[in-house]
Amino acid sequence: MAQTPLLENRHDGGFIVSEARGHRSRDPMTFSGAVKHLPGEVVAKKAGGTAAAAAKAGNTGNGAFTLDATTPVLPNAQAGIYVVRCTAAAANSGTFRVFDPTGDVIGDVVVGQTFSDGIKFAIADGATDFVVGDEFDVTVSLLSASLVPLNPTATDGTQIAAGIGFGTYDATLADVPGLAVVRDAEVNGGELIWPAGITTAQLNAAKGQLAALGIITR
Fold it and tell me: Which helix (H) or strand (E) holds 204?
């Protein structure tokens, strides 16, 4: 008589080789993406939140400041006020420096280009050029983040590995709660679930992103 093969399902946390004491490696998270997540799936953060921009009273330049229509708030955003200040004036151009809500400099952007770090926006030239000191404030609030499968070709932050799903979480119909390994662990590389079609370069980049969180692939 023919025997029916038995297939063993994936076990919660079966990919873990070692982790920090007291479950410090794991965080409760929300799983999203209209998919069924399995243990060992490499995941990324999908940002959520609101952003509102306002020009500083007394600005000289009258160019337009436009938040990205799709993803104005990125996964690494902080709640609070980002300051975007002109530091170098130029005819039909200019350079703006971006400060996060703690006052740290996170980058520069030239008029006509797109800035994408925490917040995403572009500044267009106007009839009157910007001068040094012209400023925009961007207020970020209602921050949230859910986990979706890693997408190495995305540009909205989901191309950055943020952890590994601990269990089976069915988010095909709605977001669901679950656990993810997000720091300080050793994991079995053979038990991880990567996106279909991921290239060697993308795989190595994602492993490096996990390593930066203290998640080491063995």
Answer: helix 200-212
